[in-house]
Amino acid sequence: MSARALAPGLLGDNSADLAQERRRENRMMLALTLPALIVAGVLMLVPVGWLFSLSFVGADGGLSVENYSRIWTDGAYVAIFVTTFKIALLVTALCVGLGYPVAYVMAILPERWSRLVMLLVLVPFWTSLLVRTYAWLVLLQRRGVVNTLLQDLGLISKPLMLVNNMTGTVIGMVHVMLPFLILPLFASLRSIDCNLTRAAANLGAGPTRAFFTVFLPLTMPGLVAGTMMVFVMCLGFYITPALLGGGKVNMIAQRIEQSVSLFPTWGPAAALAVVLLVLTAGFLGASWLIVRRLKVEV
């Protein structure tokens, strides 16, 4: 029997052995990670289940859906949800506009300069969120650095209201959330083969057309992942709106804190938290489907 005739049979036996070895390795890895998965699952599901049960406790201590009905019928709750989503969308759009050029420059720079820019992006993580927020409070106040500089340059005649309103809240949140968009987007940009844009240029595409038809679609999985991460995290922001908003900007997290102190039970706060959790899970699921579809198309 020739070697050509033996090859398919030998390859088939080898494939079966490899598949069996892969299944055995998967079972071993599952057995090794199962205790950690059980502990992580308990730590995640028990608090959520406890929160879900509290959301159905009414003011009289009995089971009730009054906490959920209050959310949809009370105009104050509706206004808080509108404000929260408006700020989250605005901060996300600003982070995309500012973060995409930074990530793009990091991707095309030489390795040494790219690491330096990455270091600058990561510097905010070295200080606490509270310290950074108080720093913006000092910079943006009426006699702060920003207003003083603008007046000295003759650009404004009187101080701008940059704090204790939505403007200060958005500025502070953009500063906090910008690295969360840049990091996943940079990872996506670094994995793109630059020869693709050169091939597009050789085929007659200009720089703008090559960017929008070749480069930008390849970055969409990282861009969508970073965008959804920023948007979802903005929905639960508390410290920055509480300090830079000056009590004039109420978001869902602040309302949850106020509900705990205003109502005799934790039911209203738990119902708000459950609604926020469901919305967050919905946005994460949508982003996962979008990223999966984009990867298939790419």
UniProtKB/TrEMBL annotation:
Keywords: Cell membrane, Membrane, Transmembrane, Transmembrane helix, Transport. It comes from the Bacteria. The keyword Cell membrane applies. CDD domains: TM_PBP2. It is a multi-pass membrane protein. It is found in: Cell membrane. Residues 81-287 form the ABC transmembrane type-1 domain. Its main location: membrane. One of its GO terms (biological process) is transmembrane transport. The chain crosses the membrane at residues 30-56, 76-109, 116-139, 170-189, 210-239, 269-291. The keyword Cell membrane applies. GO terms for cellular component: plasma membrane. Belongs to the binding-protein-dependent transport system permease family. CysTW subfamily. This is Spermidine/putrescine transport system, permease protein. It comes from Paracoccus aminophilus JCM 7686. The lineage of its organism: Bacteria, Pseudomonadati, Pseudomonadota, Alphaproteobacteria, Rhodobacterales.
